[in-house]
Amino acid sequence: MCGITGWIDWKKDLTTQADAIEKMTETLELRGPDASGTWLSRHCAFGHRRLSVMDPANGAQPMVRPAKDADNHDCVIVYNGELYNAPELRKELEGLGYRFRTTCDTEALLLSYVEWGPGCVEKLNGIFAFAIWQTDEEKLFVARDRLGVKPLFYRREEGRFIFGSEPKAILAHPDVPAEVDAEGLAELFVIGPARTPGHGIWRNFHELKPGHFIQYDRNGMRISAYWKLISNEHEEDEAQTADKVGALLKDTVERQLVSDVPLCTLLSGGLDSSALTALAVNYYKQNNQGNVHTFSVDYVDNDKHFKAHDFQPNSDAPWIKRMTDHLSTVHHPVQFDTPELVNALEAAVLAKDTPGMADIDASLFLFSREIKKEATVAISGEAADEIFGGYPWFHREEALKADTFPWSLATDLRASILSPELREKLRPHEYLSDRYSQAVAEVPELPGEDEAQRRMRRMSYLNITRFMPTLLDRKDRMSMAVGLEVRVPFCDHRLVEYVWNIPWNIKIAGNREKGILRKALEGVLPEDVLYRKKSPYPKTHNPNYLTAVRTQLLERLDDPSCPLLPLINVPKIRELASASDTNSHLPWFGQLMSGPQLFAYLLQMDFWLRHYKVKLVL
Questions:
Q1: Fold matches, 2-225 and 238-303+310-402+468-530
Q2: Among 22, 338, 346, 373, which residue's Cβ finds the most Cβ atoms within 10 Å?
Q3: Which pLDDT value is given to residue 56?
Q4: Distance between CA 600 and CA 356 in Å, rounded?
């Protein structure tokens, strides 16, 4: 993976702006520690930081190739991602007369655009964000993968378009201020750590939505959707459906195991990560590639403080050992202690450019850093719960009937921690309601479904388009902050499209969450692992973490210069901080973030406001 940035300007000669594009590019150094490149013309400047995964010797970017049927004109690309069908694209293009100079997928992508133009995106299987400049027509084409695994942000103003893999690249532009308006604060305080699709948090920043592309030239900007979920009747029975799911997953995993650098899998002992690891082990055996390396994460003394509950019914450690023994992987257990987690909260903000999932982000950052010492590519099980309906809120009547996002049920609490002035300006309940209504209005209904079926389709849509992007963004930003590429097979668009239309009664085959996935994996996993109850990404249960973040937050609130003070209800925060017996049970966000994470989020907010010198435009 890599980091990309660029700048189109109709009023300025960008050949004089080498220093500026270099500075923008260097903000992405951690995403691409292996090489750096820039390309400048009169009205276009591109920057690229490279993480070498395929064809390290020849895949330098920005990459330039001749435009189709155009003498002395070129197409220039900067690209972040991986194409898992690059061999098929290469073969088709060679049949059309193209000659390749490298074996990297960047060239396959660029020549696909040269041949098919914007329609090339429909041929791609992979995770990507890329920009292509046509020198003859002076037009820009920018696209993002269907599920939004790879990020892309942009800022457009009169005569100028700036983009980057992360906001930090845009913020490094000499004319871009670090400003946040009321809507950005509403995203952080009401929606966060999730984010409304397309919202860039920073003032006048936008996210290119998944499955969309931009065309930009002197006539302006046009945004188009090239992919979306479509509801159709499902024709296969349960057995046929399980076979199809199994075949799609196997093909997806095998495509994503291709790499010219060391690769590993993340293993929790749960259904999703165990399935991917087992499929990887089988593929390695068939191709005599040796043992698969696996990594797991936990926390010092977590076993002493763990308490089972609906979201986390048991600890991972025994199940990880069960799978590593069963598959004979080379396993690397990683552990962190409380001080490390607290200290990494700021690193997580720098990776994300905003506050995030607190210690859930921080631990993934630390975990990725350890993995990077042994591997450059990792396979991870994100998205299975959203796609197959694994979360508890898929199976609870009160969550299904709640007129809001099931991971954001604490709106009253969120509103209560805001200062009266900010609460009046943001109107948290209205803001959340509007965002929820917007999401529900997008759901592609299937004629003939009854109310219960429509409700499950709606819940699936909310999870795929609103909750899953939060976890994908977290995974990308924390892993790429240490130069680790993480691939997510459950986000293969063919699998997502197919599972989207599986009726709920088949999805819960055997009356189990993700039942059809379990059925598809019969014979791949041991039965006890196959039917293990879901347990999410592990978090620390050590009370020392709560003590540490609560103490630090109270100290910050005692500082008269604290930038949080005008934004929050300080007496309410102190009240919550004093109620030590309830802090661990505050349902602040999702299934993992409660009292300690709320305090840590506010610490991150304080650091973010200070470090980025955020100017609030209210």
A1: no
A2: 338
A3: 72
A4: 9
d(CA 313, CA 70): 62
Inter-helix orientation angle 451-462/428-442, to 10°: 110
- 512-567: pLDDT as tens digits: 999 999 999 999 999 999 999 877 777 787 889 999 999 999 999 999 999 999 99
- Find out whether 564 is annotated in a ligand binding site: no
Are 572 and 417 in contact by the 8 Å Cβ rule? The answer is yes
Q: How far is CA 545 from the centre of its chain?
A: 26
Known binding residue 535? Answer is no
2 catalytic residue (yes or no):
yes
Mapped to the 3 state alphabet, what secondary structure does 193-245 carry? CCCCCCECCCCCCEECCCCEEEEEECCEEEEEECCCCCCCCCCCCHHHHHHHH
Give the mean pLDDT of the chain.
94
Which has the closest alpha carbon to 150: 472, 558, 498, 490? 472
H-assigned helices in 42-181: 86-95, 105-116, 167-171
Instruction: Tell me the CATH number for domain 238-303+310-402+468-530.
Output: 3.40.50.620
Question: In angstroms, what CA-CA distances link 602 with 65, 193, 272, 453?
Answer: 48, 11, 32, 39
Residue whose token pair is 């005692």: 558
| Residue 184 is assigned to a ligand binding site | no
Chain-centre distance for alpha carbon 110: 24
Say how far apart CA 298 and CA 296 lie, in whole Å: 7
Rounded to two decimals, the pTM is: 0.96
CATH architecture for the domain at 2-225? 4-Layer Sandwich (3.60)
Q: Which of 2, 44, 104, 264 is catalytic?
A: 2
Domain ranges of the chain: 2-225, 238-303+310-402+468-530, 543-617
| Contact (CB, 8 A) for 50 and 31 | no
Q: Is 381 labeled as ligand-binding?
A: yes
Q: How far apart are CA 341 and CA 564, in angstroms?
A: 22
The tokens describing 427, both together, are: 């109107």
Tell whether residue 6 is among the known ligand binding residues. no
8 A C-beta contact, residue 131 and residue 6: yes
Alpha carbon separation from 166 to 158, 251, 329, 352, 476 (Å, rounded): 22, 31, 35, 8, 10
99-102: Cβ within 8 A, 24+ apart = 101/58, 102/55, 102/58, 102/59
Cβ atoms 166, 176 nearer than 8 A: no
